[in-house]
Amino acid sequence: MRIAAIADIHSNLDFKVPKADLLLIAGDLCPATHYASSSVSMQSNWLNFQFRLWLSDQPIKECVVISGNHDWIWETTPNIVPIMGERFHYIEDESIDILDLKIYGTPVQPPFNGWAFNREEESLQKYWDNIPEGLDILLLHCPPYGILDETHHPNYPSEHIGSKSLKKRIKEVKPKIVVFGHNHGEHGIVEEDGIKYINASLVNEEYKMTKKPIVIEL
């Protein structure tokens, strides 16, 4: 099974995905402003035209997607999300069985500017509690604390933006692979306690496309 992972493209489609059975998108897919009211119509149109055309040109069999903090449309007006075709699978706090893989996805993350799917730490725990055991892949927008979650913005002090309670839950349920984004500063793969962690963010801290999709075999 060949899997390609991306996150945080922020509507930049100037790249191609390597040939893969499955494409995972770990949030912040769409163009956005800081406000839902000025984002959702733009996101609906972009998904229906630019993204749909781009996706049809990628050498993949299936695509599983979650939202990120910029993807207002799925939190505020999911009724205007266009029908994206048979191989596009959006999940939100739920599991999907696809290509003989069990995948669970959730878009939530700690508060940041009051954007989409922000949740306070005390309410995050209930989302993490819903992550089941026996997963092949856990698809997140939020990184676990201390794993590829340190920011490196040239104008701000570095900080860890992951969730400690998420990291604890991952250690309990032990998925084979954890894919996330949100932090633009630490694209890459690390392995810890037999779990492979992938930060699939493709843009840098200044939202410029500087990385390539990560491809793994499972």
Structure description:
The structure is a single chain. Helix content is about 20%, strand content about 25%. By secondary structure, the chain is an alpha/beta fold. It has a single domain (about 1-215), classed as 4-Layer Sandwich (Purple Acid Phosphatase, chain A, domain 2), CATH 3.60.21. The strands form two sheets. Strands 5-6-7-8-10-9 form a six-stranded mixed sheet, with no helix packed on it. The protein has a five-stranded mixed sheet with strand order 4-3-2-1-11, with no helix packed on it. Strand 2, helix 1 (about 40-55) and strand 3 form a beta-alpha-beta unit. Helix 3 (about 120-130) packs parallel to helix 4. The chain is globular. The model has no long low-confidence stretch (mean pLDDT about 95).
Q: Which geometry do the CA atoms define?
A: globular
What's the story with the biggest beta sheet? Answer: 6 strands, mixed
Number of helices: 4
Tell me the CATH superfamily. Answer: Metallo-dependent phosphatases
Model regions low in confidence, pLDDT < 50 over at least 5 residues? none
Mean pLDDT: 96
First-last Cα distance: 5 Å
Give, in order, the helices and strands.
EEHEHEEEHEHEEEE
Strand order of the largest sheet: 5-6-7-8-10-9
The count of domains is 1
> Percentage of helical residues?
10-25%
Number of strands: 11
